[in-house]
Amino acid sequence: MTADITPVEILLVEDNPDDLELTLRALRKAQLSNRIHVARDGAEALEFLFCEGPHSERSMEDLPRLILLDLKLPKVDGLEVLDRIKSDARTRGIPTVVLTSSQEQNDVVTSYRLGVNSYIVKPVNFDGFVKAVQDLGMYWLLLNQPPKLEV
Predict the structure, then answer these.
(1) CATH number for 97
(2) Which of 18, 39, 90, 121 is the most buried (most CB within 10 A)?
(3) Residue 103: which pLDDT band, with cuts at 50, 70 and 90?
(4) How far apart are CA 106 and CA 103, in angstroms?
(5) Minimal CA–CA distance to 120: which of 130, 133, 109?
């Protein structure tokens, strides 16, 4: 890794501009917004994670410390993204949190079957949403002790 490349702490995969702005605002408020990469669809998220396409110059050694993943995404849906993340030894250990509006039991069950670390339904009100994002950021980035990932 070169000195001028800053590793990404959070990969935020969100296509809804309002939810994206709310999430970024909540992370800023919790002072967890220094190194965030935003992917606006599932294909972009996979290209970023696996250093493909416009991200081919990235190194697989510079993986995010946390992935916040919406399920209802264009191009490649969130469950397929989750499946790819958790089925690849290089990315399997990255804590992945589904942050979605879907309360469908099938989505919850499938997410956990695929290996999600946490499933959070986006709260409807702003204060609840901000608190949920701040709490999960604080836990996964500051309190959780992840293993060293081998690439």
Answers:
(1) 3.40.50.2300
(2) 39
(3) confident
(4) 9
(5) 133
DSSP states of the chain: --TTPPPPSEEEE---HHHHHHHHHHHHHTT--SSEEEESSHHHHHHHHTT-GGGTTS-TTS--SEEEE-SS-SSS-HHHHHHHHHHSTTTTTS-EEEEES---HHHHHHHHHHT-SEEEEPPSSHHHHHHHHHHHHHIIIII--PPPPP-
Q: pTM for the complete prediction?
A: 0.86
- Total structural domains in the chain? 1
Is residue 1 assigned to a domain? no
| Domain contains 4 | no
The reply to whether 136 falls in a domain is: yes
- Quote the crossing angle between the two packed helices 17-29 and 126-138, to the nearest 10°: 60
